[in-house]
């Protein structure tokens, strides 16, 4: 669980006195953060927020900066927040900046009062951009491994009705985040957005902040997971993550005893108590429906609780050839392993989860080629595009019935799958990754625990891109 700890770190959060920002502060406090520096407008709301945050961690130091994003000048705000944040930081550094303060105004675009439109752009776009630039520059100067998170919105992707200013600001903020990530990731500062859906807060009218210990929401104690293709690479990283989050039992598919034994040795380093069972299966050699039947039947027989809580469709293959000469058997094999089997496993396991009332979590490994066409990898792009869309389709049908379905889209990862890329292609990839390095399996431990645990309780139908910034470039 140390993956999720923030001990010793200092964070600045704008707009943390209520709603989503307060929930961020509670989360950081519960992860052991040393100091929170919050902007505020009214002392009573700040005091109430501080009380609430202290319930998650009485030792967190809470400092505050008075600032009104509407009545004060933009540059004055940015200067004040930056200067005061660094002067009150206990460590002299700011490790985390969360640009969260935001407003909304609803008017038809043709009659949108200009001052209100300008206010939304100022608070939701310009100030976050300027704070990112100022505090980010300081992080680079000091060599801080900084994390900057901007609160975007579903309206970064879609346009709402009568929300022209808001959707413009949130769309811009999302793209700004990608642009900055391209420049800073290799220099140690990571920049991301969180795009909330509809959340009951002051902005939407009601207020609902759950009061519970956040770190325990990452725990997977008592749960049983099936992971395909966990004998190496990304899947092994997933299994290590699940083990370290205290999972009770892992049921792994495998082809060779020696790779399985080696993988078990690695997983046990993260949790010696985890029970590991296995199902021998070859996704290429055996028949599609037999494979699905075998994994489904054996998994439920092996489960120590009688339930499967987590299904991870990860086993995958790739073949490279130009589309006009792609050998049909190889094309079909990629579609079978990377699309048909994960789809059918999702259907079988999901149906049983619904029947048993299991609050299931299903995660598929998709790819950058869920979004891009790639080159000489046409069946892989078809399969990975399809699995991403399938995930969304299933989430539409099952989310209200307690099952969350998501994808992880890895960028370039050093595994057996990418071993056979030409050196020329590898060099090209190297240059293009904003973070300046390929991923390794350790980069997948945190993301899988997040998606399989209650920490992601409102995340479904989504694809978590873990790509060192590639897609934003
Ligand atoms: N590496 C990347 O850059 C990258 C990027 C995006 C997405 N992905 C996806 O990530 C997933 C895992 O790939 P990886 O990169 O971690 O590759 P990997 O190290 O080759 O792991 C692939 C896993 O799938 C299993 N597998 C392969 N062929 C199989 C078969 N015929 N029957 C049963 N199991 C089989 C392997 O088992 P064995 O040990 O028996 O071979 C292994 O456990 C795949 O879905 C892949 O498409 C990878």
Strand content: 5-15%
The portion of residues assigned to helices is 40-55%
Total domain count = 2
| Cα shape | globular
* CATH architecture heading of the largest domain: 3-Layer(aba) Sandwich
Q: Can you list the strand order of the major beta sheet? A: 9-8-7-10-11-12-13
Structural class based on helices, strands and sheet pairing: alpha/beta
Unique bound compounds: NADP nicotinamide-adenine-dinucleotide phosphate
**Low-pLDDT ranges:** 205-212
CATH topology description of the largest domain: Rossmann fold
- The first-level CATH class of the largest domain is given as Alpha Beta
* Element-level helix/strand string: EHEHEHEHEHEEHEHEHEHEHEHHHE
Instruction: Tell how many strands the DSSP assignment holds.
Output: 13
The number of helical segments is 13
Distance between the termini: 32 Å
Evaluate the radius of gyration: 23 Å
**Mean pLDDT over all positions:** 94
CATH superfamily of the largest domain: NAD(P)-binding Rossmann-like Domain
- Main β sheet profile: 7 strands, parallel
InterPro entries: NAD(P)-bd_dom_sf, Sc_DH/Rdtase_CS, SDR_fam
Keywords: NADP, Oxidoreductase
Family: Belongs to the short-chain dehydrogenases/reductases (SDR) family.
GO molecular function: oxidoreductase activity, acting on the CH-OH group of donors, NAD or NADP as acceptor
Protein architecture, described:
The protein has 473 residues and is an alpha/beta fold. The protein folds into 2 domains: 2-194, Rossmann fold (3-Layer(aba) Sandwich), CATH 3.40.50.720; 219-472, 3-Layer(aba) Sandwich (Rossmann fold), CATH 3.40.50.720. It is built from 13 helices and 13 strands. The protein has helices at residues 19-30, 43-54, 74-88, 114-142, 164-184, 233-244, 257-268, 288-302, 328-356, 378-398, 416-419, 423-432, 445-452; strands at residues 10-13, 35-40, 61-66, 96-99, 147-151, 190-194, 224-227, 249-254, 275-280, 310-313, 361-365, 404-410, 463-466. Helix 9 links the parallel strand 10 and strand 11. Helix 4 (114-142) runs parallel beside helix 5 and helix 9 (328-356) runs parallel beside helix 10 (378-398). The protein starts with 9 loop residues before the first strand and ends in a 7-residue tail after the last strand. Mean pLDDT is 94; it is low at 205-212.
């Amino acid at each position: 669980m140390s993956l999720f700890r923030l001990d010793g770190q200092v964070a600045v959060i704008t707009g943390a006195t209520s709603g989503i920002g307060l929930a961020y502060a509670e989360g950081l406090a519960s992860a052991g953060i040393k100091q929170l520096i919050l902007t505020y407008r009214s002392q009573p709301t700040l005091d109430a927020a501080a009380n609430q945050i202290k319930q998650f961690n009485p030792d967190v130091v809470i400092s505050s900066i008075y600032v009104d994003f509407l009545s004060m000048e933009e540059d004055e705000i940015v200067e004040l927040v930056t200067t005061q944040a660094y002067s009150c930081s206990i460590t002299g550094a700011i490790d985390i900046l969360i640009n969260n303060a935001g407003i909304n105004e609803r008017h038809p675009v043709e009659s949108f009062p200009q001052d209100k439109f300008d206010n939304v752009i100022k608070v939701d776009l310009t100030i976050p951009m300027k704070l990112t630039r100022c505090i980010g520059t300081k992080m680079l100067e000091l060599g801080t491994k900084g994390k900057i998170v901007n609160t975007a919105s579903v309206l970064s992707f879609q346009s709402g009705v009568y929300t022209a200013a808001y959707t413009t600001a949130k769309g811009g903020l999302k793209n700004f985040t990608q642009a900055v990530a391209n420049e800073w990731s290799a220099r140690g500062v990571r920049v991301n957005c969180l795009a909330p859906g509809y959340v009951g807060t002051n902005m939407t009218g009601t207020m609902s902040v759950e009061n519970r210990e956040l770190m325990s929401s990452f725990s997977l104690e008592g749960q049983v997971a099936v992971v395909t293709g966990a004998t190496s690479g990304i899947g092994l990283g997933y299994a290590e993550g699940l083990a370290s989050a205290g999972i009770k039992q892992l049921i792994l598919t495998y082809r060779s005893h020696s790779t399985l034994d080696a993988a078990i040795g690695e997983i046990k380093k993260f949790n010696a108590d985890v029970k590991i069972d296995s199902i021998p299966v070859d996704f290429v050699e055996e028949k599609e429906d037999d494979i699905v039947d075998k994994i489904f039947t054996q998994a439920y027989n092996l489960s120590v609780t009688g339930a499967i809580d987590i299904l991870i469709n990860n086993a995958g293959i790739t073949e490279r050839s130009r589309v006009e000469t792609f050998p049909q058997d190889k094309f079909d094999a990629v579609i079978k392993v990377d699309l048909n089997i994960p789809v059918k496993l999702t259907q079988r396991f999901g149906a049983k989860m619904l029947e048993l009332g299991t609050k299931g979590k299903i995660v598929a490994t998709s790819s950058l080629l869920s979004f891009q066409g790639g080159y000489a990898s046409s069946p892989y792009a078809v399969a990975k595009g399809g699995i991403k869309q399938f995930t969304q389709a299933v989430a539409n049908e099952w989310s209200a019935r307690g099952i969350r379905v998501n994808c992880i889209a890895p960028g370039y990862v050093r595994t057996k799958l990418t071993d056979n890329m030409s050196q020329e292609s590898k060099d090209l990839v190297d240059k293009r990754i904003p973070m300046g390095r390929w991923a390794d399996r350790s980069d997948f431990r945190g993301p899988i625990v997040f998606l399989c645990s209650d920490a992601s309780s409102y995340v479904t139908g989504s694809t978590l891109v873990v790509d060192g910034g590639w897609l934003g470039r």
